[in-house]
Amino acid sequence: MSSSRRSSASPIVPIVVLCLGGLAAALTQTMVVPIQGELPALLGSTADNTAWVITITLLAAAVAMPISGRLADLLGKQRVLAASAAILVVGSAVCALSATLAPMLVGRALQGVAMGFIPVGISLLREITPPAMTGTAIAAMSATLGVGGAIGLPLSAWIADAHDWHALFWVSTGAAAVILLGVVFCVPHVHDAHPGRIDWTGAVLLGIGLVGFLIGISKANAWGWGDPRTLGFIVGGVVVLVLWGWFELAQAEPLVDLRTTAQLPVLMTNLAAVAIGFGMMAQAIVMPQLLQLPEATGYGLGQTILQAGLWMAPGGLMMMVFAPISSLLIKRFGAKLTLMVGAAVLGAGYLVAFGLMDAAWKLLIASCITSAGVGIGYAAMPTLILDNVPMREAGAAVGLNSLMRSIGTTLASAIMAALLTSSATASGLPTERAFQLCFIVGAAAAFLGVLIGATIPRNRDAAPAPVTVEEPASTRN
Length: 477
Prior knowledge:
Elements: H1 12-27, H2 39-43, H3 47-50, H4 52-75, H5 77-96, H6 101-113, H7 117-128, H8 131-162, H9 166-186, E1 189-191, H10 200-218, H11 220-223, H12 228-249, H13 258-261, H14 264-292, H15 305-333, H16 335-355, H17 360-386, H18 394-422, H19 432-454, E2 468-470
Antiparallel strand pairs: 1-2
Helix pairs in contact: 1-7, 1-8, 1-9, 4-5, 4-6, 4-7, 4-10, 4-18, 5-6, 5-7, 5-9, 7-8, 7-18, 8-15, 8-17, 10-12, 14-15, 14-16, 14-17, 14-18, 14-19, 15-16, 15-17, 16-17, 16-19, 17-18, 18-19
């Protein structure tokens, strides 16, 4: 076996496998949206209860991403990727076989846990690709977070419309099984495991704190922002997270090395991730609602769910298209400036949307601009993280960055919903002013990301330690 950092075999196949795996995992975030209104009847429960079919996936993903990253640093990234793909297979199959709420929630939680595939895959790409391809590969893998969510809506709407709703999950099961085989036989096993132990107490505290905080944020509009339940979950979650941080600082082998993440390049990149994640999700929430609003309102565009999804789908593809462009920008100007450019393009897209609300094709243009900004920004963030953390902490650090993006998207979901209900017509529909306000807030969040990005210090040059690459099973004798 080669002792060099890079495998001598062609990295194209493992790159494709990892990107498709990230796409399959990200699709689970939006795949049930087209049937959300039908879930109470389909699962024999109430609308309040079936809302957890979406929420539980987001919560599980938020908790799983940093934990998966740490496990990858300790056990090896390829092993954790295979485990994540296997969990996605099981979770999707459980959903496909479900007819009631309880097993559906179990399956959806497992699908959320599988989201740990994405940050681990990103951190592995640095180790299995030649330097000339690393930036583009990381950019493409990062873009799958947005691409999966964007194309998941029209794809799942089409599947649900043409087939029984269980087909959504059988398709996910099949795709996950293919990814699992690809990871096992095509992705090289890098000998990057580092001796250490898993901080299970820290993992439990992090999980409790995140779940409490995110439940409070995600349910704030249903319960009311001043409701004791909302305040209790948000404040309680923050208190537990503070205790978690204090506990982690006292550990010799913490789940997340907060001293490393407190360094300005990493800290400010993670704060920018919240702002850009907010900007990405805001347009994904607001634009489809505007597209589907009845034309009788005078500003709604009268599209069906499937049509709205198709109008939004090119934006997801735009994120992937801009992955190699982002890589070129990173090589030419650095990851910091590239992050700022991405956030600025994202903000500009919202300003375009503010002025182009009267036709679906105009919103398509705005969606493509905002998506291009997300694609550029999302590609720069893991590069900034990986350039500023030790190799032994790469998985956990990228996982934490992915978590910060997830917090941004959750905040956007709650705040956009609050803004859309803050100004309603007599029939209860959001007013044109409410949509305009959403676009302004989305632009403000993106431009805040520009300002945060400007405070990131120049990256230090980190020479990664050599690791041994074992060829995939398919190439062994």
